[in-house]
């Protein structure tokens, strides 16, 4: 199927269209963040400004339309700049880990034999420890901070792409067009790139799209558990960890601090939902079994 | 089949060695002083040793890495993972104390996760492209996008904060007192099972009440996962010739779907069991720390927060080894049951 056809069908499908619209919204927020929520200190825009020093969250008001969370961090500001953080995590982590996976998976399948065996055993080893636990360990060792979180996520997320790519390449390796290219004397690199990767890329793209959401979830889980971004950094997961002490509200009104949890919760869920909607629709379009 | 099992058993030591190397290389990223903590089994060992350099050389922390690996793995094999500052106990003991709570939660979650996911997937496929199918799929994609920690906190806010039905923790205060009293024999450390064995059913009910919210939080995510695999396999199976034959010979629709199709559609589902076990184990970290369940996951989360390196590393190694063995067991038993799997 051609790219144009896929894009056309993604836009025709109501569900994926919804996903695309939500992502567009987030892109606009991320791009225009300096105008939507002007930073107090232009050199450190990712630090959420504080409206005071009291611990107790304050409800939405004219000045702080989403209210402030624990420690008087401005929720609106955190959400807006957190969008940039989410895109940075998603794009960098998924981009790099998918590339690693494509390269290793292709090498394993194309050359086969002991190269394949070694690469796949390494893949197995990296997959043996649950993803979230492995990332917790690595971030603990490397130390807090967004860069270290991304390094940990990349280190433990390339394996599924490698496996997928390997099985994809194995299935086209024996195809006639690849054999023809070999017979014509094309070099390995050209065959791998022109003839194999371009013919096997769609499932990898679907997987990458679904992973955008899950990487952002994992990164915010780390922040939530207190091993992610440093305090005060514009990051949705951290905003939710601020909410943690306040979810039971006050005597007589258990929902008193709802905004500290629900607002960042909605932002992160919508972000992941949009990527998953697109990935889901994409998969249906490309899966002939389901048509 | 024997060849398949033999191959799996031959690979096992390689994987175990690889995982231990992976963890060890993370230890080596720490400096010698920080690494020291992974060798100390009791804070008393540090007393009187003002000169930390002396300790560093005593434990050989400046030796070449392979010598250090040899010593480290020797200790690990003896169950020696160092002293956990966050738990105030040796890592091995901390893990052993917390293991029953995690096992109880994991076992209790498996049933709703697997059956819920399969039932939804089958319903979705049988009603392909009808309203029910669309509804189930929309819930699935939302469930898949909902971060567990947000969902868990919302459950806590509503069902504990507002309604007071599902409290966090493992037991209520009155039940904890009973469990700690001398009359109550702790056979397994899993309160539901212990309650039954002690014929104390109020403990059983109390333990179940505390587990409902965590189990639901874990299930939401995995329903979506199992549902999708079941659904696409079911759709494929329903188009097979033998299903048409079954219909043609006049079997009732229900029998065709639930007896002939479901069984065959489920085979690919079991092949992802290993992946699921891993995912569930990861989910426990989040769920246990939200619902304040004193288990392995909460231990990992606390240890990470307090930079308790031995705790984090020991926990990861323990999780890794345990899951490798579980996965091996799952794979081998399915290979025994179904000849098709071992051909892959």
UniProtKB/TrEMBL annotation, chain A:
Membrane topology per record:
Multi-pass membrane protein
Q: Where in the cell is it found?
A: Cell membrane
Spell out where the chain crosses the membrane.
15-37, 89-113, 125-143, 196-217, 257-278
Q: What is its main location?
A: membrane
Q: Which domain of life is it from?
A: Bacteria
Question: Which Gene3D superfamilies does this one have?
Answer: MetI-like
One GO cellular component term of this record is:
plasma membrane
Give a GO biological-process term.
transmembrane transport
Describe the location of the ABC transmembrane type-1 domain by residue ranges.
83-279
Q: Is the Thylakoid keyword given for this protein?
A: no
**Pfam families recorded:** BPD_transp_1 (PF00528), OppC_N (PF12911)
Q: Does the keyword Transport apply?
A: yes
Q: Which keywords does UniProt give here?
A: Cell membrane, Membrane, Transmembrane, Transmembrane helix, Transport
- Similarity annotation: Belongs to the binding-protein-dependent transport system permease family.
- Protein name, entry field: Peptide/nickel transport system permease protein
Give the originating organism: Halanaerobium congolense
Automatic annotation (TrEMBL), chain B:
- The residues that cross the membrane are 9-30, 105-126, 138-163, 211-230, 265-287, 316-337
Record-linked InterPro entries: MetI-like, MetI-like_sf
State where the protein is found.
Cell membrane
Q: Name one GO cellular component term.
A: plasma membrane
Q: Which GO terms of the molecular function aspect are on file?
A: dipeptide transmembrane transporter activity
Q: Is Transmembrane helix found in the keyword set?
A: yes
User: Taking every annotated instance into account, which residue ranges of this chain make up the domain ABC transmembrane type-1?
Assistant: 99-334
Enumerate the UniProt keywords alphabetically. Answer: Cell membrane, Membrane, Transmembrane, Transmembrane helix, Transport
Q: How does it sit in the membrane?
A: Multi-pass membrane protein
Per the similarity annotation, which family is this?
Belongs to the binding-protein-dependent transport system permease family.
What name does UniProt use for this protein? Peptide/nickel transport system permease protein
The species this protein was found in: Halanaerobium congolense
């Amino acid at each position: 199927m051609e790219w144009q056809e896929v894009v056309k069908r993604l836009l025709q499908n109501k569900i994926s269209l919804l996903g695309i619209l939500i992502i567009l919204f987030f892109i606009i927020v991320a791009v225009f963040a300096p105008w939507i929520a002007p930073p107090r200190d232009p050199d450190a825009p990712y630090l959420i400004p504080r409206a005071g020093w009291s611990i107790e969250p304050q409800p939405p008001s004219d000045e702080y339309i989403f209210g402030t969370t624990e420690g008087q961090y401005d929720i609106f500001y955190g959400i807006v700049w957190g969008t940039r953080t989410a895109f940075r995590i998603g794009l960098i982590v998924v981009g790099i880990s998918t590339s690693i996976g494509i390269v290793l998976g292709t090498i394993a399948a194309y050359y086969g034999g002991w190269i394949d065996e070694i690469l796949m055993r390494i893949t197995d080893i990296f997959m043996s420890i649950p993803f979230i636990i492995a990332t917790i360990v690595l971030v603990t060792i490397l130390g807090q901070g967004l860069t270290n979180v991304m390094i940990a996520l990349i280190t433990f997320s390339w394996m599924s792409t490698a496996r997928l790519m390997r099985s994809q390449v194995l299935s086209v390796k024996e195809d006639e067009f690849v054999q023809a290219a070999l017979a014509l004397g094309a070099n390995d690199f050209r065959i791998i790139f022109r003839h194999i990767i371009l013919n096997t890329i769609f499932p990898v793209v679907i997987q990458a799209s679904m992973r955008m959401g899950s990487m952002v979830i994992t990164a915010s889980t780390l922040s939530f558990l207190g091993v992610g971004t440093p305090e005060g950094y514009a990051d949705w997961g951290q905003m939710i960890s601020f909410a943690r002490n306040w979810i039971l509200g006050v005597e007589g009104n258990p929902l008193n601090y709802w905004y500290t949890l629900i607002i960042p919760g909605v932002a992160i869920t919508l972000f992941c939902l949009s990527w998953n909607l697109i990935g889901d629709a994409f998969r249906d379009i490309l899966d002939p079994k389901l048509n | 089949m024997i060849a398949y099992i033999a191959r799996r058993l031959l690979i096992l030591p390689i994987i175990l060695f690889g995982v231990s190397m992976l963890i060890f290389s993370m230890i080596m990223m720490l400096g010698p002083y920080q690494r020291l903590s992974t060798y100390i089994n009791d804070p008393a060992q540090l007393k009187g040793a003002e000169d930390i350099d002396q300790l560093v050389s005593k434990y050989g922390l400046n030796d070449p890495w392979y010598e250090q690996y040899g010593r480290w793995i020797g200790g690990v094999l003896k169950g020696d993972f160092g002293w956990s500052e966050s738990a105030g106990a040796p890592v091995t003991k901390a893990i052993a104390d917390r293991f029953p709570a995690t096992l109880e939660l994991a076992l209790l979650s498996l049933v709703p996760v697997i059956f819920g996911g399969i039932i939804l997937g089958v319903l979705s496929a049988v009603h392909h492209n009808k309203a029910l199918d669309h509804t189930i799929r929309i819930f699935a994609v939302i469930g898949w996008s909902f971060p567990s920690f947000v969902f868990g906190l919302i459950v806590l806010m509503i069902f504990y904060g507002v309604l007071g039905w599902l409290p966090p923790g493992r037991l209520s205060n009155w039940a904890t007192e009973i469990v700690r009293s001398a009359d109550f024999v702790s056979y397994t450390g899993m309160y539901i099972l212990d309650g039954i064995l002690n014929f104390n059913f109020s403990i059983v009910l109390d333990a179940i009440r505390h587990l409902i919210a965590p189990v639901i939080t874990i299930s939401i995510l995995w329903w979506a996962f199992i549902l999708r695999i079941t659904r696409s396999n079911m759709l494929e199976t329903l188009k097979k010739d033998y299903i048409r034959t079954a219909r043609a010979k006049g079997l009732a629709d229900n029998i065709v779907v639930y007896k002939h199709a479901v069984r065959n559609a489920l085979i690919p589902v079991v092949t992802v069991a290993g992946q699921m076990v891993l995912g569930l184990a990861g989910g426990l970290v989040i769920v246990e720390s939200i619902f304040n369940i004193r288990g392995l996951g909460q231990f990992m989360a606390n240890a990470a927060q307090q930079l308790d390196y031995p705790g984090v590393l020991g926990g990861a190694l323990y999780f890794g080894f345990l899951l490798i063995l579980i996965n091996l067991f799952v794979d081998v038993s399915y290979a025994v049951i179904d000849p098709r799997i071992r051909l892959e």
